[in-house]
Amino acid sequence: MSEFRHIPVLPEEVLELLAFAPDRPARMIDGTVGGGGHSALLLKKYPRLEVLGIDRDPAALEAAEANLAFAGDRVRLRRGEYADMGTFAGENGWDHVEGILLDIGVSSPQIDRAERGFSWRQEGPLDMRMDQSSSVTAGRILNFAPEEELARIFREYGELRSAGKLARAAVERRQKHFFGTTADLVALCDETLGRSAPGKLPLPTLVFQALRIAVNGELDQLRKGLAEGVKLLAPGGRIAVISFHSLEDRIVKEFFRTESSGCVCPPGLPVCRCGHNPSLSLPLRSRAVTASAEELERNPRSACAKLRIAVKL
Ligand SMILES: C[S@@+](CC[C@H](N)C(=O)[O-])C[C@H]1O[C@@H](n2cnc3c(N)ncnc32)[C@H](O)[C@@H]1O
Hints:
Blueprint: H1 11-17, E1 26-30, H2 37-45, E2 49-55, H3 58-67, E3 75-79, H4 85-91, E4 97-103, H5 108-112, H6 138-144, H7 147-158, H8 163-176, H9 182-193, H10 203-216, H11 218-232, E5 233-243, H12 246-259, E6 280-281, H13 293-298, E7 306-312
Parallel strand pairs: 1-2, 1-4, 2-3, 4-5
Antiparallel strand pairs: 5-7, 6-7
Bound molecules: S-adenosylmethionine.
The site of S-adenosylmethionine has 21 residues, from α2 and β2.
């Protein structure tokens, strides 16, 4: 197995906020088990905890299997999408769980391996699939998606002001040469978008983020995963979500706000028509939890991480 190095972000905060009773059995789903970093910490701290770990990426599962071997049959691993966690839980004979962790996004090994195509800083194929059995790659989208679809991806998932201009330039370029590598896309960004503004994220970061979200259907996964998670949680169970960019964090914040509200009718209606009942409470921290100065020093990749947590009513 090749080496899989990923430092779990916000480790103390996850341990503190996903608090299980130390002396009672508990079950949790780690929907993005990766190399098993967070799960290992939780399994060590809670000796009666069982974890069902899910990941799309077989390389991650291979690493998790080795890292979590110490916990024996307290761990089960499944390859797939966390949006299907209800099905995986059912197959495991679980109708509810006490905890859910989603640490969404890519792992360090996914970013660091040039051949996965996630990083604009290294030349590699335009792949970006977390699950390499899927047929949709970044190259396929760039080379074949209609111009309007490309513009939508750059605008909605990269929040790029020049989304239309970049989509037009991509279509003009691919009529002469197909996009082959990440370097081809970086060259297009440089020619079309110019320099990134000082103090802002580099523009290729946003373009790569947009394609990655499209390739992996990440925002739909998040919306479905949150809804599935709330159904599976036992009363008093906790769901913790770590996100790495504002699009994801907005979805989590909005979902938690809606699910912890009574009426969700549009403002101004004289009587409530929605009949919505809250399913979550947010008593723990109203703001997202971010990395401490000490963690930032130790693990610079924690800089964008935001943890939000809610409790099932
Ligand atoms: C940031 S890493 C998780 C690291 C893990 N918490 C640890 O401490 O080792 C994110 C992982 O989630 C996986 N992933 C992302 N979206 C997923 C989805 N929709 N379903 C299942 N796995 C997903 C990625 O393949 C990656 O391995």
